[in-house]
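Task: sequence design from structure.
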């Protein structure tokens, strides 16, 4: 199902503000043909500079909710974790603070609800993979949802189970967090076992099928079997993307972004091969979605949100390094305020003659003093 709204969490000194913008108005044109024409026109004006070719998103809609950030946890801002509970609604946002306290805000009822605490604090950029299991028929048809959350700081691994409900105010025994086994790898022949708990944290992961997760760290690629709750070594190579890959059934492809260290801003399409192959899968398609910024601006992070129906929103976070003149000033006064900038880009993938085609819609940038986009959902 295609999303209508995008959730934007903005970081403030003492709280996080949840804003919601209309995708059709802010990031996508009504027709694909319009987007194509606009892209051609912008390419012709490429030399006119940046960021005037982008639209400003400074005036966000009024915040619908504020998640408090306790003063004691302000220094642990990297461990303020947000996630969207798919299936419950595109405005059902879960927040976990560094102490493990969990709050769910439901935009439909405009109410927050406390949930069972998480087992471990989660980095804001944790890799989150979603799984849906459906059973029954007709009126007895039900859906069960799972979120597998892997820390990007260590080998912590946790599962959040939930199901769709018409009332979040009721306590649900099957809603909650479950600690999953850390990475302890077994060879495929089941004869070799070694403890890899001290391995590097994962930087990329994908849901291979309904019961298998694959993840990569610097040591290689491994898989997690949901039936046995065991990790297995899969390959020496690593997945050629960063973060969580999104699977789009109608294209039978996984979509993901390149490492933030890459100077190219590209959306890539993959087909996950057999793990017995000796080389990592190469992108079947790789499309530029954003032009480079002027000198001094560096990429710090990229986030991909699957909006359904082949549409994506990509958040690219930048920071600006001081110029040589500013560095001299820093030495004198020992003060330099980092500049942050986030660019949101609407991208659509469609079938075309000979394969898939990327269509870039609108890009908007956001920058505000003492504030920044913490994440998009």
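Answer:
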């Amino acid at each position: 199902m295609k999303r209508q709204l995008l959730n934007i969490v903005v970081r403030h000194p003492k709280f996080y503000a949840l804003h919601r913008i209309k995708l059709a108005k802010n990031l996508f044109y009504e027709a694909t043909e319009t987007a194509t024409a606009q892209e051609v026109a912008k390419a012709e004006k490429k030399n006119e500079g940046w960021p005037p070719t982008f639209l400003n998103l400074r005036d966000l809609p009024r915040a619908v909710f504020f998640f408090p950030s306790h003063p004691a946890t302000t220094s642990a801002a990297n461990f303020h974790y947000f996630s969207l509970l798919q299936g419950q609604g595109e405005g059902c946002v879960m927040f976990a603070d560094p102490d493990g306290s969990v709050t769910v805000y439901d935009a439909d009822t405009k109410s927050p609800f406390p949930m069972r605490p998480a087992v471990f604090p989660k980095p804001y950029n944790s890799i989150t993979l979603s799984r849906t299991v459906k059973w029954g028929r007709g009126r007895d048809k039900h859906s069960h949802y799972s979120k597998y959350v892997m820390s990007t700081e260590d080998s912590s691994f946790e599962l959040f189970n939930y199901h769709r409900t018409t009332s979040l105010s009721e306590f649900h025994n099957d809603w909650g967090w479950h600690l999953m086994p850390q990475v302890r790898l077994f060879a495929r022949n089941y004869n070799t076992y070694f403890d890899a708990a001290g391995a590097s944290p994962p930087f990329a992961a994908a849901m291979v099928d309904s019961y298998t997760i694959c993840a990569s760290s610097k040591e290689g690629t491994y898989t997690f079997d949901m039936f046995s709750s065991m990790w297995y070594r899969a390959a020496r190579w690593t997945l050629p993307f960063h973060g969580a890959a999104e699977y789009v059934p109608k294209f039978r492809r996984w979509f993901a972004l390149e490492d933030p260290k890459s100077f190219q801003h590209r959306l890539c399409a993959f087909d996950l091969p057999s793990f017995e192959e000796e080389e990592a899968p190469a992108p079947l398609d790789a499309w530029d979605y954003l032009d480079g910024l002027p000198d001094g601006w560096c990429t710090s992070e990229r986030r991909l949100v699957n909006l359904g129906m082949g549409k994506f929103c990509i958040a690219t976070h930048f920071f600006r390094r001081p110029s040589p003149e500013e560095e001299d000033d820093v030495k004198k006064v020992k003060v330099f305020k980092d500049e942050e900038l986030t660019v949101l880009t609407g991208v659509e993938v469609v079938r075309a003659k000979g394969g898939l085609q990327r269509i870039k819609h609108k890009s908007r940038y956001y920058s505000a003093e003492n504030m920044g986009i913490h994440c998009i959902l």
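DSSP finds three helices and 27 strands in the chain.
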